[in-house]
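Problem: given the chain below (445 residues), write out its structure.
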Amino acid sequence: MQQEELHQFHGKTRRDFMKQSSLLAGGLLAAPMLSQANFFSGADNVIKIALIGCGGRGTGAAVQALSTKENVQLVAMADAFADKLNASYNNIKDEVGDKPGRLNVKEENKFTGFDAYQKAIALADVVILATPPGFRPIHFEEAVKQGKHIFMEKPVATDPAGIKRVLEAAEVAKSKKLNVVVGLQRRYQTSYREMYKRFQDGIIGDVVSMQVWWNQGALWVRPRKPEYTEMEYQMRNWYYFNWLCGDHIVEQHIHNIDVGNWFMNDYPVTAMGMGGRSVRTGKEFGEIYDHHFVEYRYGNGVVMNSQCRHWKDADSKVDEEIVGRKGRMYMDKAVIKDHKGKVLYQFDKSKENQPYQAEHDELFAAIAKGEYKFWDAERAAKTTLTAIIGRLATYSGQTIAFDKALNSGLNLQPAKYAFDAAPPIVPDASGNYAYAKPGITRYFS
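Solution.
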């Protein structure tokens, strides 16, 4: 993206961002209604979609986009790997077989390689960004530069430098009135929205503390093959390398952290915590930790305790609990109780929606109507940074400040994106990767 296009965020703080977010939420910066001509091309009013990143989440997002009520077509696909793209295409074809005409990807519009995203984006009105998150900033920049509406998966970066790029591109997206939805789907889930309405009405009073969890068992591992370069191996096994994934506190636990930020209508000032590799210790697990516990402190003194882990056969818990002066909100069960245990509100779970589908339904409905309604990128970037400072805190044992991290310039990305290039971290002679050690690993000092 041309530098002169970008609104410079250098020197801005968390409080500056919150002020602008409040203006947007209050409608003071709301965009005017736009005609359909501003939103998609073609006399037949088909909304053309490009899928960037053809893994499981990208495939699912494409199916959900094609399952909306609008006149949509998937016309282009891009991935670093041809086998991933072809498998995704076949899976999408199976899923949307009863919707003829929605899958319209010609062979010449299936692009592979590191520059594939640019070619696919050019053919679409709306792009789905679902690669490993380390690539999200450059893909988002390109989609904004080309004037496309965007659905992008969380998280939106893996390092503070990437967050800066997303925030800058988000400003350009606003100026162009481009709808941007980010896959933090709890904000599109009926039970969470109903709980938030009661929270705004004061049912539990002021927030006193919050607890958020993403504790689960083991995840997939893709074994190394002799023909892989180191770059290809890491990209295929992307979950275990920070430049690609950001660690599971960023890649998964961001969902729960986002709920805390949403209900606080703010972002933490600092993070401190602990973590390590106590169970998942083999070389196949790259450099990431298997557990994190972080204390996030907001400007008003409220603390959010955050824990996530990947431990086989240990108890699982994925949930959020908001504690107020008058009661508690148990988000997964969608129930609110006072401090004596009396139920103040219970959401009827039979009325729950499918939030992954709702994200696309709402996005494509707005586009079809020529409305500008969604500017998720800024808040998603700040919640991603919240997760990142948690990782930096557990890796180092330091207390990490939100604003200092944002302006640190810390960049995990490789100097060159190519299969024969060296990734930012390489194994030793035994095939093991160095990982962070609290008290030894240091940031910003």
